[in-house]
Amino acid sequence: MKASRIERLISALQDTEFSLLALNPGASLTYLTGLNFHRMERPIVLWIGVDGKIAVTLPTLEIAKLSLAPMDIKAFPYSDDPQTWQKAFQEAARYLNFRQAVIGVEPNNLRVLEYRFLESAFPEARFHNADHILSPIRMIKEEGEVAAMCKAVQIAQSALQATLPIIKPGVTEKEVASELTIQLLRAGSHPQLPFYPIVASGPNSANPHAVPSDRALKAGDFLVIDWGALYDGYCSDLTRTFSIGDIDPELEKVYSLVEKANENGILAVQPGKTAGSVDQAARRVIQAGGFGEFFTHRTGHGLGMEAHEPPYLYQENDQPLLPGMTFTIEPGIYLPEKGGVRIEDNVLVTDSGRECLTNLPRCLQKLG
Amino acid sequence: MKASRIERLISALQDTEFSLLALNPGASLTYLTGLNFHRMERPIVLWIGVDGKIAVTLPTLEIAKLSLAPMDIKAFPYSDDPQTWQKAFQEAARYLNFRQAVIGVEPNNLRVLEYRFLESAFPEARFHNADHILSPIRMIKEEGEVAAMCKAVQIAQSALQATLPIIKPGVTEKEVASELTIQLLRAGSHPQLPFYPIVASGPNSANPHAVPSDRALKAGDFLVIDWGALYDGYCSDLTRTFSIGDIDPELEKVYSLVEKANENGILAVQPGKTAGSVDQAARRVIQAGGFGEFFTHRTGHGLGMEAHEPPYLYQENDQPLLPGMTFTIEPGIYLPEKGGVRIEDNVLVTDSGRECLTNLPRCLQKLG
After folding, report:
1. Among positive and negative, which fits the CA dihedral B51, B57, B63, B68?
2. Domain at B140-367, CATH from 3.30.540.10, 3.90.230.10, 2.40.30.10, 3.40.190.10
3. By the number of CB atoms within 10 A of the CB, which of A273, B64, B261, B344 ranks highest?
């Protein structure tokens, strides 16, 4: 399966400006080869030529991993002395034998570390963003990928349900996050979670990317929990917002708006519509309710091997939705110092509309 | 405390070519400001000027975090539409008001994503590696940093001890890794582990960076466990190798050599000696025993906020050791298809020699 992905990529390269792609460790490299490398202080680059040559520059101690790949990969290893690294890149360049090439890279992944080595190994080359070649392949999920995501959703949902009983006034955000993490592992998530859970209560919930703190939950709080699991290399990413005891009627109203925006966003998903139109469908509800300025982020992001990947659901994005795309729908309203609400689901575009992969209740649940 | 770090950095900048540092999310940014940002698809750059100006380009939804920093940071926010990002970088550049500057960056951290924005915002600037400014500050640990590392060691050691009882023939590598991860959290590690445990048995242990598999342990195996905890932002990183039942006498000999190499490496740590001399002290033992070619990596790496950071202990490194540096000592021997051994400890350079922060037994323990 992996071999056919790389073949598809190589055939997609034929009609482009690219002679060569240079990928460092990350989701695309793993997607194409099945190999996992760390992105650390030692630069690793996988080379894929339009002529079908596949090579890798890597530390000697990583060579054993290459036998796990379902294709031949020519290795150009180097030692732990950084003085030897440039030579390994130059040898790879000689083998690949492209000079005035346009080389495709992933700007969100490639670091200046690798980039400097690429520049010296290919002094006459130009380096261009290759996202528009890789994304269309990775965005359309195969059946096996969707199955892994469904399992990641299931794990995340069970883990939350196993965590709810400990949530009550007096418990801290960190304690909830820690218990939820343990439950994610017990439920079968890979321990390398797609991201560490966000558990944000009271005023902290007004910060969409809050880090769990020592704040103890108390009555009247909103409690935002944003969490996900990793299964077989694929992510889930959910958010639910709870109330601790009774809350202010203004906050209840805010909750209803977000609930309605989430529903509208999900229903707007249709093949052929744009990513932007889904954002607009969710945003319209919040704007009409008078809270537009407090919905400070896009409606969602693609989800798959990475917790954030294309397509991104922001207003201006005219990317058409296609069957097989998977992404989050996660409108929110954040009232500084008062609290915030976000409700996040994971959606698959189907031939006829959408399938919502997540099914935990979306209505306001009172805890504690 | 954080404010004084950034003041120290700014005063160190006075004597350099740099007018400005541009840091993206990662350990140095957190070290200097106490702030944690994700390194995701939205570029975030913290700017530190030699004139004392501090600014940040970031998504609007992250602005709330800035109030946690113990210094004033001028924000240049942008929206979720990528078309707006360049403008935020240009506005920051105008505020910072350096033109033909040399701008310091961290090549191991900065991505081509941010780099392209930097280049357009500062078209007349040159971008140079600033590791030699940041590393000397970060390499020398403060008392509080060492205390956090000691706690991270303690957590890792307790977690392993709590995991040992489940290790016996028939249990898989993944099951051991999963239990160890849960025990790390129960013992108090931050859930964002410095790295996911390596649990490698039998022939898999010959791969220094093996990923836990479904292989079941069996008698005669070496079992390499490489794990660490994160506490208050600081890492521990240990390795122990066990035997499952009785093992081949050749493997026992290999174990003894690695044990001796580890001891020799630790004893070689002295302020004023070089990082390379520690590698040589460990390597000499393995070479004399006839297994030099199977010790395929350096003897160790710096440890602190990052699981791998300077100083790196490779043969050729003439970096002098200084009191306050912390690093691993982890010689290994890897016999393809037979198995591997690695014994890894965490060491602090003191005024008079070294202190070993880890103290789990290093002799060969038989399990199962």
Report:
1. negative
2. 3.90.230.10
3. B261
